[in-house]
Design goal:
Largest sheet: 8 strands, antiparallel
Structural class: alpha+beta
Number of helices: 11
Strand content: 15-25%
Radius of gyration: 25 Å
Distance between the termini: 49 Å
Helix content: 25-40%
């Protein structure tokens, strides 16, 4: 009932308060509830309406990724000198207001992640292109349907300059398309690609048949990358290469996009750990998932129950892990104290991270 001198709380505000109580209890539990698909949109709408009309609630409206804390629009000109515009998040879930405590945690994580050393974009792109047993989407201009592109999944390898090359059958449609019109694009994803948070690169250029004098060397390189590619020795298969690269565009993850010049790309080098990163990551993902969760919790500061945590990229500066918490997921960077250039030093660096975790656990329990 109404009390003298006080206004009755509006229904949207009640809904907002209820939503905050539910969300404060356990984000993971709420996100996995069977009712979440029904309640979440309504509560999110209530948050937005109430926070715009009631600033006293103290909710933050700055849109950030839930797991990594990354902003969808960087207003700091030092971090965004090109003044690249952010995403128009509108009334989406990303724009749902959160408590000051959650916002503070997201900022801490974002600041930690921003300070992590990472390979340069040319290095990262060259590493993606140097992957073993690589397959990618090659788009060629269709002969059968003039003016329309045709996409094909093809195997590829790269030469010393980073130029992708292929071994194609003369019977293939994409081969015939290239003979008629060499203009093409090649979209390559990182080996553990799953979605928008993962890296991909697109090269645009002209793909032409390689002179016979280079075929033996290219065949050797190709079969080192694709050990089972026995067809590379068939007489009706020929080598093609993107001899002229016109453009290199890169998306390193959600809200992380740009480009490098062709000169920067060719001047880059694959990461020194890429040759043996896979066995290390497979070992960590099979036998040490609890350690990976500890790194995310104690070294980065991600609070909450982590459902899964898998290492997905390893380089000389550290590694990336894919973290899932209920229906939310993101990529978290774990940096090494110092760059690592040899396989034997990877174990020492990872042991060092575990020692840091042990100290933090002991300090927390003291």
């Amino acid at each position: 009932r109404d009390q003298p001198g006080k206004e009755m709380m509006s229904r949207p505000l009640i809904a907002t308060a209820l939503g905050l109580i539910l969300m404060a209890g356990s984000t993971v539990a709420f996100s996995t509830s069977p009712l979440s698909s029904i309640l979440r949109p309504a509560l999110r709408s209530s948050y937005a309406r109430a926070s715009r009309s009631s600033p006293a609630l103290g909710l933050s409206m700055e849109a950030r990724d839930k797991v990594t804390g990354a902003k969808f629009e960087e207003k700091d000109e030092k971090k965004n000198p090109g003044k690249r515009p952010g995403h128009a998040v509108g009334d989406s879930e990303a724009a749902a207001p959160v408590s000051p405590e959650i916002e503070a945690q997201r900022k801490r994580i974002e600041e930690h992640q921003s300070a992590c050393a990472k390979p340069s974009w040319p290095e990262e792109i060259r590493t993606i292109m140097a992957q073993k047993n690589g397959f990618a989407t090659l788009s060629t201009m269709s002969k059968a349907h003039e003016g329309f592109p045709m996409g094909s999944i093809v195997g590829f390898a790269t030469d010393a300059k980073g130029r992708p090359f292929f071994v194609f059958s003369s019977l293939s449609s994409h081969t015939q398309n290239l003979v008629a019109n060499p203009k093409a694009s090649l979209c390559v994803t990182e080996p553990k690609f799953k979605g928008a948070a993962d890296a991909r690169v697109t090269l645009i250029g002209s793909v032409t048949k390689v002179d016979g004098g280079e075929e033996d060397e290219l065949r050797k390189t190709y079969m080192e990358s694709h050990p089972g590619a026995y067809w590379a020795e068939f007489q009706d298969f020929s080598f093609f290469r993107m001899n002229e690269i016109a453009d290199v565009s890169f998306v390193g993850g959600f809200a992380r996009a740009g480009a490098v010049t062709v000169e920067e790309y060719m001047g880059g080098e694959p990461d020194p750990l890429c040759a043996f990163a896979d066995p290390v990551m497979n070992h960590m993902n099979l036998d040490h998932t609890d350690a990976l969760k500890d790194y995310v919790t104690y070294l980065v500061g991600v609070d909450g129950d982590i459902d899964t945590c898998q290492m997905k990229r390893l380089d000389k500066y550290g590694f990336d892990v894919r973290v899932a918490m209920g229906s939310d997921a993101g990529i978290i960077r774990i940096p090494f104290p110092e760059p690592v250039y040899e396989r034997k030093a990877i174990k020492e660096a990872i042991v060092g991270l575990s020692q840091q975790v042990a100290k933090k656990k002991a300090s927390k329990e003291a």
